[in-house]
Automatic annotation (TrEMBL):
Keywords: Carbohydrate metabolism, Cobalt, Isomerase, Manganese, Metal-binding, Zinc. This is Ribulose-phosphate 3-epimerase. Catalyzes the reversible epimerization of D-ribulose 5-phosphate to D-xylulose 5-phosphate. It is an enzyme of class 5 (isomerase). InterPro entries: Aldolase_TIM, Ribul_P_3_epim, Ribul_P_3_epim-like, RibuloseP-bd_barrel.
Length: 217
């Protein structure tokens, strides 16, 4: 059994010091860099575009886990590959032709993830679960960092884990939003493989120690 992975969310880092923050993550026990891309349409906020991702990539030696909270993600798949994404996650709610989008991501040689908003039932993934490398469960409403965790997430993770096992899928379960050392163990016990932590890491006194704490929970 592999130990769980930690993917600190750059959204909560100090944007003025992205190089220093990237080097800190390189020197930590973090497994992935989690990068949220928001367009101000799908969610009410704007974040990084390709140039920023490219710039961070120069200073990183870890997997780039890019989470697209944007409408029409198909238009940008090749661009995100070029910017350095290793894993590209799209929102179920933003894709009219999800199967086609997944195939397009795979065709670029990236790992493929699908994210679900808190109100979306995991059953929508039943027909494609075996095509996915990752399912991202939003445990807060997407768009802003620092929100509090939605308790129904545990139940959702358990049900998703059962589905993954039932279909023989190799998809990892990633949790994004409100993850702290208080709920990390319960999430892992429910079936989570990857924990995204933003403000809990970057607002802590010692982010490297906080990542270590989450990793060893």
């Amino acid at each position: 059994m592999m130990s769980h992975l930690i993917a600190p969310s750059i959204l909560s880092s100090d944007f003025a010091n992205l190089q220093a923050e990237s080097e800190m993550l390189n020197n930590s026990e973090a497994d992935w860099f989690h990068i949220d891309v928001m367009d101000g349409v799908f969610v009410p906020n704007l974040t990084f575009g390709m140039p920023v991702i490219k710039a961070i990539k120069k200073h990183s030696n870890k997997t780039f886990d890019v989470h697209l909270m944007i409408v029409e993600p198909d238009k940008f798949i090749k661009d995100f590959k070029a910017a350095g994404a290793d894993i590209l996650t799209v929102h179920y709610e933003a894709c009219n032709h999800l199967h086609r989008t997944i195939q397009a991501i795979k065709a670029e040689g990236m790992k493929t993830g699908v994210a679900l908003n808190p109100h979306t039932n995991i059953n929508v993934l039943e027909d494609i679960i075996t095509d996915l490398d990752l399912v991202l469960i939003m445990s807060v409403n997407p768009g802003f960092g620092g929100q509090s965790f939605i308790e129904n997430t545990y139940k959702k993770v358990k049900a998703l884990k059962e589905m993954i096992v039932r279909y023989g899928s190799t998809a990892l379960i990633e949790i994004d939003g409100g993850v702290t050392s208080k709920n990390a163990r319960q999430l892992i016990d429910a079936g989570a493989d990857v924990l995204v932590a933003g403000s809990f890491v970057f607002n802590s006194e010692n982010p490297i120690n906080t990542i270590k704490e989450l990793k060893n929970i």
